[in-house]
Amino acid sequence: MAWYLVTRLLQMIPVFFGAIFIVYFLMFATSGDPTAALCGDRGCTPATKAALEAQYNLDQPFFLQFLLYLKGVFTLDLGNNFSGRPILSVIAETFPNTVKLALIAIVFEAVVGVTLGLIAGLKKGTWIDSSLLFMSLLLISVPVFVLGFVAQFVIGIKLGWTSPTVGAGAPIQDLLLPGMVLGAISLAYVVRLTRNSVAETKTADHVRTATAKGLTPGRVRNAHVLRNSMIPVVTYMGADLGALMGGAILTESIFNVNGIGYQLYRSINMGDGAMVVSLVTLIVIVFVIANLLVDLLYAVLDPRIRYA
Amino acid sequence: MSTSTESTNPGGRRRADRAAAPTATGSSAAGPGNTPLLELRNVGITFKTTTGDVEAVKETNITVMPGETVAIVGESGSGKSTSALAAMGLLPENGRISEGQVFFHGEDITHPSRKRLIALRGSEIGMVPQDPMSNLNPVWKIGFQVRETLKANGLPHADKDVVQALKDAGLSDGERRMNQYPHEFSGGMRQRALIAIGLACNPRLLIADEPTSALDVTVQKQILNHLEKLTKEKGTSVLLITHDLGLAAERADRVVVMQKGRVVESGPAQALLQNPKHPYTQQLVRAVPSLTPEDIGAADEGDAAQEIVQIKELVKEYKIRGSWGRSTQFRAVDEVSFTIRKGHTTAIVGESGSGKSTIAKMLLGLEDITSGTIHVDGKDISTFSNKEWFGFRRRVQPIFQNPYGSLDPMRSVFRSIEEPLRVHKVGDAKSRKEKVYDLLDRVALPRQLGDRYPNELSGGQRQRVAIARALALDPEIVVCDEAVSALDVLVQDQVLKLLGQLQEDLGLTYLFITHDLAVVREIAHDVCVMESGKLVEVGSVEQVFENPRQDYTRRLLDAIPGKDLLEV
Hints:
The complex is a heterodimer.
Chain A: H1 2-30, H2 34-39, H3 46-55, H4 62-74, H5 87-122, H6 127-141, H7 144-158, H8 172-201, H9 205-212, H10 217-246, H11 249-254, H12 260-270, H13 273-301
Helix pairs in contact in A: 1-13, 5-6, 5-8, 5-10, 6-8, 7-8, 8-10, 9-10, 10-13, 12-13
Chain B: H1 14-23, E1 38-49, E2 52-64, E3 69-73, H2 80-87, E4 95-104, E5 107-108, H3 114-120, E6 125-128, H4 142-152, H5 159-168, H6 174-177, H7 187-199, E7 205-209, H8 217-234, E8 237-242, H9 245-251, E9 254-259, E10 262-268, H10 269-274, H11 279-287, E11 307-321, E12 327-341, E13 345-349, H12 356-363, E14 371-376, E15 379-380, H13 386-395, E16 396-399, H14 413-423, H15 429-442, H16 459-471, E17 477-481, H17 489-506, E18 509-514, H18 517-523, E19 526-531, E20 534-540, H19 541-546, H20 551-558
Parallel strand pairs in B: 3-8, 3-9, 6-7, 7-8, 13-18, 13-19, 16-17, 17-18
Antiparallel strand pairs in B: 1-2, 1-4, 4-5, 9-10, 11-12, 11-14, 14-15, 19-20
């Protein structure tokens, strides 16, 4: 187990450097002249341009730029972004908002999704099952921005239950609605996955044996069907946690959440290479850690899996 | 022993029997005056399917008296498990008792309330299910699974009670065992854990659904002995479900034979076996390999035959991963030497894990040889180039155990059989087609079956297809790895006869891997007995069976169910 953890953590090193390098190279190769975006429509004087290039190491060859950036990563000094703010402080300000949003989404999809999936799986073939499947299909087919705008309009503006946009500091009550919108599509997948998994497990031999012991149906369901059905669902949600943190661009824009998705979108538009690379690297790390947690959670759910 | 054939229900006389059956339940074990513990009276069980209702069990009468062991025998799909499970309300969701009544100690439990059913299960009627691999929940410790049985039935469930239940079932060292997970148990240990669960609450009736068919014959014997001892001590009635007539006759007071959802014959075990009345029972009795020692292999011309395979000091080692990346060596095959005679059948027998399949895999080139040599026709197979392997594989063909797993479900029977011919570029499309039809004829399958897919065939038909495919390239050696172990006894008999016929016609050499000694006696000329990787005994089938030199061989032979019945 300890050995497994060590090898997995060691594997993160090449992933980490590889991701930084690829993103850095792509930014370098695609963005035209980054300083043009900084200077606006009127353009800069050659002197200003040279000064800017020196400040962001843009006058150096690619590899040196990359190495200088790496040095920044290790000294925890990522430099400033194009708006002149230290990148680290931008991350410190936006990342917690995204984490809060993603956690709300994942809790929502886990609790509601697994419950509905369990009901559908146990009632497989009935009208309850069919209508839950139909609703999940509907949810999957609606683009997230349509869902976001409709929810914002109906719940936030017409009904006035929550604030339609997220205020400064992103308080939890403001994040509830965006969190649910963000988790909605994954929720539909969780319902379907749980439903299929439960329907399969409930006909398993060991469940019949459990019934033959004289256990109540409730106990058979909780101890023998639900736990065994959770393995594929946990896999999905683990991968999804990474996706929710990095892929909340649309939801964050609709509800005006100052998160990393929103920042990433702006930085890409501005060609702010250092900022983009830093954010993407952060997302990569989140992905890798989320996957590791899922793998460790497997062993908790299924004792047959032992890491050696 | 009473010779009454109560609840016999052959086709025509159903009406008359219906009234007579309940009163005619007599058993010498319990006396005619007692109330039967379990009684199925004219039970019909219907399954709802997409193509309409299917009546899986019809007009079935089964009676179990207190303290009695009754065996239901029949092939898969005969309704034997369904009838027994219906008594516990364990039918699948789409199944229901559509006719007749079920009584438990005089109480009508045909359609009991949910509460009554939960009360009955475990404490009144226990179950030992068929497959020990799939019947324990893999995510809970053994102790947890025993404890919840005790708890659900209102019995004391402290650690010592769990340990005691495990101990009763033959798992000593219960303190350690209860903290292990099912995957840390061998098949035999799991079955004992399931017996512990089934008997934990001292039920009056135990339904044992093929409790040992997934186990090695020696383990099977231990477990059945233990189960018998326990139920005798506790006075538990047993409803034993099995496809093995020999086992049923050996273990049960009375035997009920089912075919296609109906009871065709029933009566005291010995009488039924010695004097079967119904044609189906007669067929079953004839097909039990241990009861009819007949040689269906080709005639043995003594030692004149040429040795086609020579195996010398063969060793196979596997690396087992340990903690912190260290690995240890595990010797699966340990310096094994023997020869295979041309045109003869050599059987390798042993329990699971004895290394018998590993030898077959090395001969087929599916596993690398660690050390030692295999010579086929004087050539060392470990020196073969890829091209030589390709040619060699035409001459050595396998037939595997699981006929459901070894055929590609996406290919028709025709294409499956034709594939080796295409791969080896034999003939043109027309001649290949003729060859395939010829092969189908040989394995006695109708030609139009060629267009079907594996899921449309029965187990026996699939195994015939697998044989036809193996024979497509006219091989000299056929390696049968448990080729008949998954088949019902009648089908097994047919397939063995087919293999014997093919050997006679084509002069094939068989290497037959099996754990079933009864099958070995029927088909083999030479026998190799393996125990934990080592070859412990080699000899002709007569030598090994009549005069076993090793204790281990003797134990294996003694464990064949129904072995002594013929001599009685």
